[in-house]
Amino acid sequence: MALGKIDHIDFTVEDLEKAEEYFTKKLGFKLLRRTYEGKAIELTSPAGDFSLDLRQGSEELYKAERERPGWPYHFYHIAFKVDDMNKELEELKSKGVSVGGGAPKFNPIEAPKFNPITGRTYANVPDADGRYWIQLSEAKKVG
Prior knowledge:
About 20% of the residues lie in helices and about 35% in strands. By secondary structure, the chain is α+β, with helices and mostly antiparallel strands.
């Protein structure tokens, strides 16, 4: 198993504009890109070693969060960098880890999946309690 450094941490926020201003103007994060038709932003940490993905929350999402006992309010997922997605998934499967369908019900991801917006290939695996997922993230190879 070769999980790398943290790739990104994903949160929902009540006011995306306010959160962007706070993280960029007060904490020194840099705006990397706007995604999902402006309903999310990706920020790079001041040290440049991980991203913070913030997405505009909705009443539907907050309702789903409140209805899941033990679900961490506003926390979406944490993602770790991997060099070889297929190798990591095979190793996890060999250890009995559910890949894809074992993630929380309201965001089942069949793994791996490429996101053309971020250039990442990702797969979700559940945490030990099945409350949230841990994402494996492989950056698109250039060249």
